[in-house]
């Protein structure tokens, strides 16, 4: 059953140094508040998993929290490069970053396999691409009925998955809606699930398009209003497009980045 | 009436969607083109985004593929695994529309790494995203990118996404079900694969652009169609629609 | 794009003798009206696919429409046996019935593979069961990462899938809610999709838990009010439990069955 | 107070759910037991039906696993593929609760066909349904069925669902993750697998039932625990709750 904790308690209880951590949210519902708490608690040596690393992982990577990144598209959506990600990969700053790189279809299916507790998933993917040569988690499998060779991708089973949702009830059932991305799969693939929510409510009245994660599939819930900022929470907040654009100059320079993180993350909360 | 070369590119990219019923809209320039097509040549075009929306009808250009309006205006919103497995992989989408960092003469794409030469670390690009499977599974593929020797290269540093591989028959050999790239629309003109060799050939110039300019901006020895045409200038309606879209949102969605 | 047709036109256009036909609906939304139209049109030699054959297939089988049944549980839910199904299997009446028999997990994954246009699906299933020995569509596959052997099931790709839904809009978009079962997968696995609906509406206002099939994934829509009876349509009708109980004596005897079908199906509509 | 043997069976089946958090409720008698448990010993029990409902709280016994109230009262409704892949197969469910047509001494189940002897066609049973994977993947398995030589057989005509296979170690060898059947509750008593041999042993009689009666109704030479117990008689509260449930719906859901 999900425990309702403060964000500080929840991160301390669920995220450990060296963990494989997935923070999901496909543009929508990105759990920035939880990521900032991970940074503040100095939890490091993480293997970070995420289809679209985005500004949230640029921050974790730039602060040296990650030793490895598992991903399929790493950019600042609609803006350009992730400078901290590039600096880590290209120059090893602040530490080298190992990569395991997939396509979106591959990553999505890795989570599906993880949520299903299968060791791998099958897809028509990667054909002719150089990607399989760089990843030990891409292989092939032959259909026992037709003989066709298909791509196989290894399941992802994070130690912890962190997501942001609109709300939870007091029993710990979680409800999210809008673009629901790959969050259900990422959560169900993990050993431990941390959900930040905009609010706790008495009852989750049904909503069109909503996904509900029952309390017994979640481990900790923390209230973090506007916890997806600069991403957004449909029905609660809007995407801060200006922040995404502002992030480009902030993140280009190491010192500017560090000063920003100090002022807005380390000394905040 | 005047226009920019980016507007020429986007208007022609939108026109390339004539007749398409469904379009899987890649991140980047394709979103502007696909949204413009919905306002001009193909009002019924069904826009599908990898964030899980089927039939989005945004009123402005989304900055990212996850903008709330894409979900709010969609016929259906599904999970990311579902959009890739049940809709894309299943071959239900007519056109895949992709941007690219590097393209070669067979319309293969690199969006992974740039080789900066001996002793220098690889330059990092964003990665594959949805492109490998979009290019594999859609009925056909359109590409849109700015024309330069940096983007249109003799040899890709990395093959992220297969267009026509190393030539005719390669897609079939690899088991890629769709027809692959049928046009590459740039800010200088339009390239299309030669039906016999699968090599990209310059088939149309944008108004005011010369063949020499295009060859100069291409990293390989570009073949030019004997009857190279000129694209129709943007109509005032196309430009007005594009500018209205862009005023309302980002132009490089 | 979906065409809106009469039920008679829709069945005539989409269902052909010898087809593989899936009529899905997991207790809820079972497309009885369409099945009755198939019987009236005398379409036969069908391979019928359905997780839970239920009274709907008892009727088709008893009328001789089927040469083969692909399924995972064939009973009258909460009541007992399907007598026409048993008579066909045990005694070949009115014609022999070939079987391809799975577990629910296997059948569900066969539809998932079909909807994904993969030739097979992988699951942890059938271990130690005698079922694989009876089915050519159950095999094994080895994980290329862990070496573990898992069950593989062949994709199901019906020629036609028939489902019942609450409603469609005039553009042919279909909306269903409540227990949504395996209908999306069954529809997307098929070459042709026929949907009967309670009503056509101007606009599909969003509903909690609703699945929407866009018009371009559906081929024909026919209005069939109460078209799931004796099953039900959440929000429109309730399950006719008395009918399910009454079906037991009706279907026990061949002549009683035939008389009932004549009066209620062949001479109806 | 008096009760029927079916009531004894259902009350004891419900009691066996004490301590369970989540229960995958098979079609048939298990639904009555699981719903009774929610009203008596385990009010917080989460009922999961293969029709796709997580946390159903029906007010009456559903006739089928697809009754509308199961969906209307659930915490979440998911698709059938999802319930089997993400919830059952993933090992998230504590207890799988199954009925059965034929059971053998290792608690293997046949729900497929009955051998009627040479020259006669096989008798047809409904088939596997969810049982093979429920028995494989749940933390443990409970079974409930009426006790007779027809149901409790020396040798299954067909193995639909593996309980303990041919004895100790078989589940591990087959790669079945859950612990398998831990109790078979009948209208005469309770059988449990011997920890050493995995063979079902009579461990408890219902009040008023003799060991001889049970052995007589069992198709194999039934082992009896040295300290065979007697189940507590149904309490008035249990009976009242069961009768209220049954009055409102079908008793054999």
UniProtKB/TrEMBL annotation, chains A, C:
Keywords: Transferase. The keyword Transferase applies. GO terms for molecular function: CoA-transferase activity. It comes from the Bacteria. Pfam families: CoA_trans. InterPro entries: CoA_trans_fam_I (IPR004165), NagB/RpiA_transferase-like (IPR037171). SUPFAM superfamilies: NagB/RpiA/CoA transferase-like. PANTHER family: ACETATE COA-TRANSFERASE YDIF, CHOLESTEROL RING-CLEAVING HYDROLASE IPDB SUBUNIT. Belongs to the 3-oxoacid CoA-transferase subunit B family. This is 3-oxoadipate--succinyl-CoA transferase subunit A. The gene is gctA.
UniProtKB/TrEMBL annotation, chains B, D:
Keywords: Transferase. It holds the Pfam family CoA_trans. InterPro entries: CoA_trans_fam_I, NagB/RpiA_transferase-like. GO terms for molecular function: CoA-transferase activity. Belongs to the 3-oxoacid CoA-transferase subunit B family. The keyword Chloroplast does not apply. This is 3-oxoadipate--succinyl-CoA transferase subunit B. SUPFAM superfamilies: NagB/RpiA/CoA transferase-like. It comes from the Bacteria. The keyword Magnesium does not apply. It comes from Acrocarpospora macrocephala.
């Amino acid at each position: 059953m999900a425990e309702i904790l403060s964000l500080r308690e929840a991160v301390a209880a669920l995220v450990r140094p060296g963990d494989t951590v997935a923070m999901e949210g496909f543009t929508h519902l990105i759990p920035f508040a939880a990521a900032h708490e991970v940074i503040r608690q100095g939890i490091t040596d993480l293997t970070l998993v995420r289809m679209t690393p985005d500004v949230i992982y640029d921050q974790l990577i730039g602060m040296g929290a990650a030793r490895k990144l598992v991903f399929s598209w790493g950019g600042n959506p609609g803006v350009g490069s992730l400078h901290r990600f590039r600096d880590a990969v290209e120059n090893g700053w602040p530490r080298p970053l190992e990569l395991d790189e997939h396509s979106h279809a591959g990553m999505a299916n890795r989570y599906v396999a993880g949520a299903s507790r299968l060791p791998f998933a099958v897809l028509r993917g990667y054909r002719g691409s150089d990607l399989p040569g760089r990843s030990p988690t891409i292989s092939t499998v032959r259909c026992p009925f037709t003989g066709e060779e298909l791509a196989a991708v290894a399941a992802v089973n994070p130690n912890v998955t962190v997501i942001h949702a609109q709300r939870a009830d007091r029993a710990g059932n979680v409800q999210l809606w809008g673009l629901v991305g790959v969050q259900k799969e990422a959560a169900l693939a993990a050993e431990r699930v941390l959900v930040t929510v905009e609010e706790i409510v008495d009852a989750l009245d049904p909503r069109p398009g909503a996904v509900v994660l029952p309390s017994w599939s979640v481990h900790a819930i923390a209230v973090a209003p506007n916890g997806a900022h600069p991403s957004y929470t449909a029905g609660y907040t809007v995407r801060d497009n200006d922040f995404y654009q502002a992030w480009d100059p902030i993140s280009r320079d190491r010192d500017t980045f560090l000063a920003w993180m100090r002022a807005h993350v380390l000394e905040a909360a | 009436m005047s226009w920019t070369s980016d507007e020429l590119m986007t208007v022609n990219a939108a026109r390339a969607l004539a007749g398409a019923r469904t379009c899987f809209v890649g991140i980047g320039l394709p979103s502007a083109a696909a949204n413009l097509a919905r306002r001009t040549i193909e009002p019924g075009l069904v826009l599908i985004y990898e964030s899980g929306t089927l039939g989005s009808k945004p009123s402005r250009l989304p900055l990212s593929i996850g903008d709330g309006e894409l979900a709010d205006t969609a016929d259906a919103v599904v999970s990311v695994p579902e959009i890739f497995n049940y809709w894309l992989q299943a071959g239900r989408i007519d056109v895949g529309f992709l941007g690219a960092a590097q393209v070669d003469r067979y319309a293969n794409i690199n969006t992974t790494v740039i080789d900066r030469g001996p002793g220098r670390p690889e330059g990092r690009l964003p990665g594959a995203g949805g492109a490998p499977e979009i290019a594999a599974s859609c009925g056909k593929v359109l590409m849109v990118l700015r024309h330069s020797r940096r983007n249109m290269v003799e040899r890709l540093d990395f093959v992220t996404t297969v267009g026509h591989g190393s030539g005719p028959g390669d897609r079939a050999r690899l088991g890629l079900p769709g027809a692959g790239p049928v046009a590459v629309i740039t800010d200088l003109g339009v390239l299309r694969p030669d039906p016999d060799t699968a090599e990209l050939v310059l088939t149309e110039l944008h108004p005011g652009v010369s063949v020499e300019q295009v060859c100069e901006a291409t990293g390989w020895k570009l073949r030019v169609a004997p009857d190279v045409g000129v694209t129709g200038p943007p109509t005032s309606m196309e430009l007005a629609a594009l500018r209205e879209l862009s005023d309302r949102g980002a132009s490089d969605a």
